[in-house]
C-alpha cells in the first residue's frame, strides 16, 4: 500500500484563523438578519450612496425632533389610536431613522406617540417609551435623498388608496421638476 503526502515534519495548520474584524462583521450580519418580531428592517428604501448605521441606539424621544420636510398627511384618528395602543403594549418594534442632528427621517408618528406615552399612568408603558430605537444616517443627506427615504417609508407602511398614491406621485413630480 502506497501512502502519499509528507508524513515527516510538523503538520501545517490548514484551518483558517478568523480575525476579530471578521468575527465582528459576522456578528453584525447576524444582528441585521435577525430583526425583532414585527420589524420591517431590510424592506426600507435607502438611496445608493447613503449609509444607514446598522447599530440601533436607544435614545430618549426628547433628543429627537420632527422633520419640517415631512409633508405626508397625518394618520387617521383610528390608525393613530391603533398604533398608539400597539406601542403601549409592545414598545416600538421598528427603529426610527434620523440624521446626525436628531432630525427624524422616518418614524414621526411613532416619535409623537412615544412623547405622548411618556406620561402614561402605567409605569410599564412609560418604561417602554423612555428610550426608543433609532438608527442614524452616517452621511449627510441631500434634500432629494431625504424625501425619497421619507416617501418610500410612508408608502410602504401606509395603506393608501389609488387616489392618494396618485396624489403623492403628482407631488413628487412637481417637487422634482419645480426648478426646471
UniProtKB/TrEMBL annotation:
SMART domains: ParB (SM00470). Residues 57-154 form the ParB-like N-terminal domain. It comes from the Bacteria. Residues 1-45 are annotated as: Disordered. Residues 1-28 have a biased composition (Basic and acidic residues). Coiled coil: none annotated. This is ParB-like protein. The lineage of its organism: Bacteria, Pseudomonadati, Spirochaetota, Spirochaetia, Leptospirales.
Amino acid at each position: 500500500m502506497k501512502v502519499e503526502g509528507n508524513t515527516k515534519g510538523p503538520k501545517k495548520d490548514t484551518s483558517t484563523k478568523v480575525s476579530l474584524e471578521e468575527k465582528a462583521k459576522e456578528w453584525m450580519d447576524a444582528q441585521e438578519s435577525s430583526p425583532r418580531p414585527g420589524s420591517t428592517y431590510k424592506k426600507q428604501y435607502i438611496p445608493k450612496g447613503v449609509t444607514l448605521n446598522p447599530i440601533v441606539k436607544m435614545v430618549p424621544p426628547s433628543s429627537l425632533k420632527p422633520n419640517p420636510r415631512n409633508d405626508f398627511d397625518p394618520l387617521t384618528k383610528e390608525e393613530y389610536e391603533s398604533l398608539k395602543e400597539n406601542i403601549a403594549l409592545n414598545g416600538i418594534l421598528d427603529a426610527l431613522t434620523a440624521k446626525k442632528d436628531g432630525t427624524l427621517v422616518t418614524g414621526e408618528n411613532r416619535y409623537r406617540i412615544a412623547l405622548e406615552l411618556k406620561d402614561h399612568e402605567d409605569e410599564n408603558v412609560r418604561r417602554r417609551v423612555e428610550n426608543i430605537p433609532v438608527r442614524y444616517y452616517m452621511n449627510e443627506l441631500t434634500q432629494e435623498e431625504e424625501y425619497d427615504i421619507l416617501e418610500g417609508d410612508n408608502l410602504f407602511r401606509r395603506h393608501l388608496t389609488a387616489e392618494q398614491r396618485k396624489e403623492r406621485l403628482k407631488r413628487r413630480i412637481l417637487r422634482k421638476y419645480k426648478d426646471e
